[in-house]
């Protein structure tokens, strides 16, 4: 029996992909999981406490992905646009209800990212007990560098994560400062979602988040990963 392809009313959205270091093949993005308050000092600067019982998350659509090196237009609906530098984990194999000791088997590689945030909208959402979607999940809000395969990056330890705006260091921490480690995050998420190839986990941001404006140049670094660079440009 032959099944014909359905007729679509309009073209489907393009598949979002990320470059991979050392190959022309690209990583197709499925889902973007972002970890909230995974650095103690960042939680403090947001006037919150870390939940020691379990990590928590918010999601971004794949359409939020934008490559390092891009010019980011100042987004609509905000007057307080913030940077959050993050270590990113790229999932390359299925992980369903796994233990932390087995979680790293699902990792394809690592990248450096920015969780760009409309902070004023987030503040309103917090005050009213509403979801954070307007503040977090919008076009070009998930910056990412090319992915380095896990075998080439090596072990996650106390690597320094840093963001500068212009010549000023805004954020600086260590990957070892994360409250919930990468294996713990993967294991925890895998009990609520069927993690699989194409999923990305933005693992949280160190303290020092702050506002940017048109003309600012942002540079992020973690040893062993490509340098992240974006420029903020005026709203379109």
Automatic annotation (TrEMBL):
It comes from the Bacteria. SUPFAM superfamilies: FAH. Residues 32-233 form the Fumarylacetoacetase-like C-terminal domain. GO terms for molecular function: acetylpyruvate hydrolase activity; metal ion binding. It holds the Pfam family FAA_hydrolase. Transmembrane segments: none annotated. Keywords: Hydrolase, Metal-binding. The keyword Transmembrane does not apply. This is FAA hydrolase family protein. It comes from Siculibacillus lacustris.
